[in-house]
C-alpha cells in the first residue's frame, strides 16, 4: 500500500454498455477500483473481460453509462468536454502497448512537444525532458530517433513522455506485449520505480502474471465484473 496513502483514482460502480445490434453489450458491470497515490495495481483477466474498457473510462476517454470517476479528488463524471480534456491533460498519463513515437523526432523532442502543446515554455520543457530521460535510463539517447532505439528503449521514451505532465494517475495497457522477457521485466520494474518516485497511482493491464508480484495489488476482471483488488505480499519483498 502507498506510503503517501492519498486517493488519486476512484472508480465507483462503473457500468459501461456499448450498443450491440438491437440491444447492448455490458463491457463493465458495476466495477469499483480505488488506487492511492504511489500505489501500483495490476489488472488481469481474459480477453474481452473489460480491461481496456476500464482503462478507457479511468482515462476519461470513454464516459461510463453510470458510475463515478474521480481523479485527484475531482469528479470527472459531470464535467463538460473542455474541462474533461484539461483534467485528462493535467492529471492522466497514458501508456499504450505500442509507443507511437513520431518517426522524425528525437527522444527528447517526443517529450518536449507535449509540454509545449500544454503551453509550457520550451526551455523548461527541455530541462524536464532531460531529467525524465535520465530517470528512464536514456540520458545518452536524448538525440536518437525512434529507428535508432530498441523496442524496450522506445517504451522507456513512452513512459517518460507520459510523465512529462506530472500526472497523478498512470494508465498502462499491456506495456510488455511487444517485448522479450528480459526487457519486459525491466519495463515493469521501471514502472514500479516511477510509481514510487513520483507518487503516481498506476494501473497496468497485463497478461504477464509473473510480473504481478512487482505490483502492490492485483485486480481480476471477468465478464465486466471486477473482483476486489488483492494485495501482493511478494511485491513488497521484491522491491
Ligand atoms: N467500441 C466497442 N463497441 C462495442 N463493443 C465493444 C467495444 N469495445 C469493447 N467492446 C466489448 O466490450 C467487452 C470488453 O472489451 P475490452 O476490450 O474492454 O476487453 P479486454 O479485457 O481489454 O480484452 P483484451 O484483453 O482482448 O484487450 C467485449 O465484449 C468487447 O467485445
UniProtKB/TrEMBL annotation:
InterPro entries noted in UniProt: AAA+_ATPase, ABC_transporter-like_ATP-bd, ABC_transporter-like_CS, ABC_transpr_LolD-like, MacB-like_ATP-bd, P-loop_NTPase
Entry annotated with the keyword Nuclease: no
Molecular function in Gene Ontology: ATP binding; ATP hydrolysis activity; transmembrane transporter activity
SMART domains: AAA
One GO cellular component term: plasma membrane
Keywords: ATP-binding, Nucleotide-binding, Transport
ABC transporter domain boundaries: 9-236
Annotated protein name in UniProt: ABC transporter ATP-binding protein
